Each structure stands twice: as C-alpha cells, then as structure tokens.
Amino acid sequence: MQVIDILEHYKKYFRWTFFFVPLILVFFSACGELSQKNRQKVNQALKDSLTSTTDSWNLTMNLIENGQRKIQLHGKYAATYNTKKKKETRISGPVAIQIYDSTNAIKTWVHSDSAIYHSKTSEFELFGDVRVRTRDGRHLQSEYLDWNQGSNKISTPRFVIITTPTDSIAGTGFTGTSDLSSYKIKKPSGRVTL
Questions:
Q1: Confidence class of residue 6 from pLDDT cuts 50, 70 and 90?
Q2: In 10 A of CB 147, how many CB atoms?
Q3: Alpha-carbon distance 127 to 144, whole Å?
Q4: 189: Cβ–Cβ under 8 A, 6 or more apart, which residues?
Q5: How far apart are CA 175 and CA 173, in angstroms?
Q6: Residue 165: what are its φ and ψ, rounded to 5°?
Q7: Element (DSSP H or E) covering residue 188
Q8: Neighbours of 78 (CB within 10 A)
Q9: Which of 149, 95, 74, 97 is nearest to 118 (CA)?
Q10: What confidence tens digit (pLDDT) does each residue in 19-50 have?
Q11: Per-residue pLDDT averaged across 162-174, rounded?
C-alpha cells in the first residue's frame, strides 16, 4: 500500500514525461545532418547575403583606361559595398572630379555634395549642388546628375541651368555630353544674347 501511495504522488510527473519525451526525440532527430541538397541551398543563401565593406577617408581615386588617366576624384569619405549583385562606392563630399582628355589635360571639372560610383556600369550619380565647368567656358548646375563614364553621357530628370559665353538656358530634363558641347533639354526656357 505504501508503494502505491508513493507512485500515486509521482503519477503526474510520469504523464508529463511520456508526453515530452517523444517531442524531444523528434526535435533532436530533426537537428541531424543536412542532406547534400539542403546544404547547397544554405551555402548559396549565405553567399548571396555576404557583403564586404571598405571605408576610406580623404579619398583620391584615379580611373585609368589603357594606361591613361581618364578621371580623378577627391572626396572626404567613401564606403565601398561589394555583393554578388552590386558593387558601389558611396562618396561624401564635397566631391571634386576632373575629367582628362587624350593629352592628359583637364577638360571638365565637376563638383557635388556627394556621389555614388557604380563600378559594374562605370556610372556616377552626383547629388546636391552639382556644378559642371568645361575649359571652353560652359557651365551646368543641377541638384542631381547621372553620368555614364563609358558613353560620356550625362543626364538629369530635374531642373538644370546651362550657361555658355553667349547665352544661358534653363529647363527640366537634360541629356548631353560631359563637355557640354551637345545637349538637349526637354522643357527649356532661357535667354539668348545676339
């Protein structure tokens, strides 16, 4: 009788043990090794999510093509982000860029508050108080400018002012060359001196 009373006291613990032991076994068996297919999926997900970052202060960046300097860029701070899908450098300013011609003379100066360089497409995005000045006296001002270095084309969907030695024109929506020798403005307005 005394043994039954003792077992009766622990009866509720036995019930819980019989309930949780199978759950614990299922849980630990699920934590076993991954199949080869699942391991490959996990590794691919990890590769896609990996990002490398590089920081630089007082940056001077030269872009060289066929042994000749094409661009020199100066900025206060730059952070380069590399992933499988994108590679970009975010530059805090002021940002100053010089564009060189084939004789290694500066043909265009560009200034902005900040910039992003997309190395896969050789494209710059310039932000805030963007100013372009050419050696023949042409000037451009805007708040945003997209510059494709490979095709030497610049564009902006925003308001732009272009000043030359003989006239000035303003408008919204611009495409042209980086030396401002040819361009189109979608919605122009301006003044011409004859």
A1: very low
A2: 25
A3: 5
A4: 169, 170, 171
A5: 7
A6: -60, -20
A7: strand 183-192
A8: 20
A9: 149
A10: 555 555 455 555 555 567 766 765 665 555 55
A11: 90
Q: What angle do CA 127, 130, 132 make, to 5 degrees?
A: 140
State the Cα–Cα distance between residues 88 and 81, nearest whole angstrom.
5
Cis peptide before 94 (omega within 30 of 0): yes
Report the share of the chain in percent with pLDDT over 90.
Answer: 39
**Residue 82 contacts residue 51 (beta carbons within 8 Å):** yes
Among 143, 119, 117, 121, residue whose Cα is nearest residue 132: 143
| Angle at alpha carbon of residue 185, lines to 183 and 188, rounded to 5° | 135
User: According to the model, what pLDDT value does residue 173 have?
Assistant: 93
pLDDT at 179 over 90: no
- Using a cut of 0.85, tell me whether the model's pTM lies above it: no
d(CA 159, CA 37): 53
Backbone angles phi and psi of 9, in degrees to 5? -65, -40
CA distances from 36 to 41, 42, 55 (A): 9, 10, 37
Tokens 């290694």 appear where?
104
